[in-house]
Amino acid sequence: GDSVTQMEGPVTLSEEAFLTINCTYTATGYPSLFWYVQYPGEGLQLLLKATKADDKGSNKGFEATYRKETTSFHLEKGSVQVSDSAVYFCALSKAAGNKLTFGGGTRVLVKP
Amino acid sequence: KAGVTQTPRYLIKTRGQQVTLSCSPISGHRSVSWYQQTPGQGLQFLFEYFSETQRNKGNFPGRFSGRQFSNSRSEMNVSTLELGDSALYLCASSLTSGGADTQYFGPGTRLTVL
Predict the structure, then answer these.
(1) Which residues pair with A100 in a beta bridge?
(2) Range of weakest confidence among A96-100, B20-24, B50-54
(3) Chain B contact present for A89, CB below 8 A
């Protein structure tokens, strides 16, 4: 079946550091790929998405490129802030239906 | 636009009881999906409803059921609660049932089973 694997956390960084969270997937066909973020005590918020190979999703300084050849969708941000501390989830969805398959989540802690 | 709302936000039940959770989607959204979040299993898909019909179902026992009303509001029911059902239950809404649609999540209902 479909699956998403992302690096385990926690990832601890200093403010203004570069952030990378690796995400790889296994799926048949051409899934859409998503990054969601969850702040403490809240639901999930969409951070960015890409719906086809080589698409780049971007939002709030975060970027991720859909790489079909390596089945990856790594999340990057050039300069993190304390407010970026959260849990980040990589997910995929197939063409029909709204079933999201999530990775295990990566907790990021940014220290001032 | 108001976001996805879920009620109640917190619930405490005992083993063997049943529970009903409610989700009101964003106005105009016709698809509602439910997810269970636990520390051990992470985020797992329960089911999706679109135009009052179950569109997809995850790998959960029959104790977990749901429905959707004509106004797109959705409920999920868990019967004969077990300790392992303690979790954060999230619902998400989207405009249609296409896989590329953005799903907007509610704040969740935290269920504790004693």
Answers:
(1) A93
(2) A96-100
(3) yes
What phi and psi values does residue A69 have, to the nearest 5 degrees?
-70, -30
Q: Where are the beta strands (DSSP E) in chain B?
A: 5-7, 10-13, 19-24, 31-38, 42-50, 53-57, 64-68, 74-78, 87-94, 104-105, 109-113
Inter-chain touch B97–A44, beta carbons under 8 Å = no
Per-residue pLDDT tens digits for A45-94: 999 999 999 999 999 999 999 999 999 999 999 999 999 999 999 999 98
Chain A residues within 8 A of B55 when measuring between CB atoms: 97-98
| Cα first-last separation, chain B | 37
Q: Are the beta carbons of A33 and A92 closer than 8 angstroms?
A: yes
Q: Is B34 exposed, middle or buried (0-12, 13-18, 19+ CB in 10 A)?
A: buried
Interface contact B92-A46, CB threshold 8 A: no
Give chain B's radius of gyration (CA, Å). 13
Task: Report CB contact under 8 Å: A97, B48.
Answer: yes
* CA B38 – CA B90 distance, rounded (Å): 11
**A to B CB pairs, distance under 8 Å:** 71
Residues of B in contact with A49 (CB under 8 A): 100, 102
Structural tokens at position B54: 């179950």
Contact B42 A45 (CB under 8 A): no
**CB distance A99–B58 less than 8 Å?**
yes
pLDDT of residue A8: 86
